[in-house]
Amino acid sequence: MGLFLLVYIFVGATLAGSFMVAALTAGYATMMPIIYSSIAGFIVAIPAAWFIAKKIRENA
User: Which top-level group of life is the source organism from (predicted)?
Assistant: First the structure.
């Protein structure tokens, strides 16, 4: 669980930032689309972090 949380911190911030940049690039410059895209990035990061942590544990 500790490894998952550590990976989630980095993956969540990276995906949230990427989704936010994508929203801004698409022309959504108001507050709500930026917030929604950031939340979507953090939600998508949950299974991604779980998968990455699982792969790290298998190779360790």
Answer: Bacteria
